[in-house]
Amino acid sequence: MTDLRPQKKGISFKKMHGTGNDFILIDNRSGLIPYENAPEIAKKLCRRRFGIGADGLILIDNSRVADFKWHFYNADGSAAEMCGNGGRCAARFAKEMGIAGSALSFETLSGIIRAEVRGTSVKLELPTPEIIEKDMELLVRSQRIKGSFLNTGVPHFVHIVDDIEAVPVYEMGRLIRHHDRFYPNGTNVDFVEVKKDNQIIVRTYERGVEDETLACGTGAVASAIACAMVKGAFPPITVETWGGERLKIFFEIAMENKKENTPSVHNVFLKGETVIVYSGMLDGDLRIAVSEAIVEE
């Protein structure tokens, strides 16, 4: 393994967020961090109060088929196929670091994703969503919960409510996330209130973070599509996140199979602002902990 101890400058990183969904980003094209140890490193760096603190760790790598390849890890060290807000931050990071231009593409576990960076705003293409079950009913502690189950790069169960502020997101989200219907991998859970025909507000319990997050890009997309299917909302749909910021969701929806009453969705894009909070260097006691995890004695 790579011995980082002689490198006095440490490992540089940027802390970024997209609508309050925050990430640590590292240019790992030189292989500074071995990927077999990345899950443990993600847990240490993302731990709030003890590490840098974030919802996820993003490592940027070389790619033969796109501008770059990303490796995304949730705060619990688990790998995720896709993350909308993380993808927007990764696109801007690559543009700022000279890794890619304004129009770019990158590899993910969900396939190759395209993005367009314009200043601090990033418009990100998402994989074609899979509508697994439009009308799903769950029994949760003797309560029947209705929602839509979709995969927008990662799985989401979307439950439409009347009063978003009254929802016990952590308690109910955790129960649905671990429900038997989603065994063994579980699901993200989104609670949605429709404010207008094309404006919604969303709160998300995020798998991997295992808590409510201020925003979730793939959850915003899943929620917008669910509201279009169930409530007749029409794109583009503006999503107000629990952090107070807004995302705009673009997509095309068509009822191709009227018999099964399941629409198809294409050309999905997520647009919103990104923020570089600060740049830093892993060169203190935290870096020593990280180095010990990846250095072979």
Sequence-ordered SSE layout with sheet pairings:
Elements: E1 11-18, E2 21-27, H1 38-46, E3 56-61, E4 68-74, H2 84-96, E5 103-108, E6 111-118, E7 121-125, E8 130-140, E9 143-151, E10 155-160, H3 169-177, E11 188-196, E12 199-206, E13 211-213, H4 217-231, E14 237-241, E15 246-257, E16 262-273, E17 275-282, H5 285-294
Parallel strand pairs: 2-3, 4-5, 10-11, 12-14
Antiparallel strand pairs: 1-2, 1-17, 3-4, 5-6, 6-7, 7-16, 8-9, 9-10, 11-12, 12-13, 14-15, 15-16
**Which CATH top level class of the largest domain fits?**
Alpha Beta
Give start-end ranges of low-pLDDT stretches. 1-7
Number of strands: 17
Which sheet architecture does the biggest sheet show? 17 strands, mixed
Kindly state the mean pLDDT as a whole number? Answer: 91
Q: Secondary-structure element order, as H and E?
A: EEHEEHEEEEEEHEEEHEEEEH
Counting DSSP H or I runs of 4 or more residues, the number of helices is 5
Task: Classify the fold: give the CATH topology of the largest domain.
Answer: Diaminopimelate Epimerase, Chain A, domain 1
Q: What percent of residues adopt helix (DSSP H or I)?
A: 10-25%
Radius of gyration: 19 Å
Q: What gross morphology would you assign?
A: globular
What portion of residues belong to β-strands?
A: 35-45%
Amino- and carboxy-terminal Cα gap: 9 Å
The CATH architecture assignment of the largest domain turns out to be Roll
Spell out the CATH superfamily of the largest domain. Diaminopimelate Epimerase, Chain A, domain 1
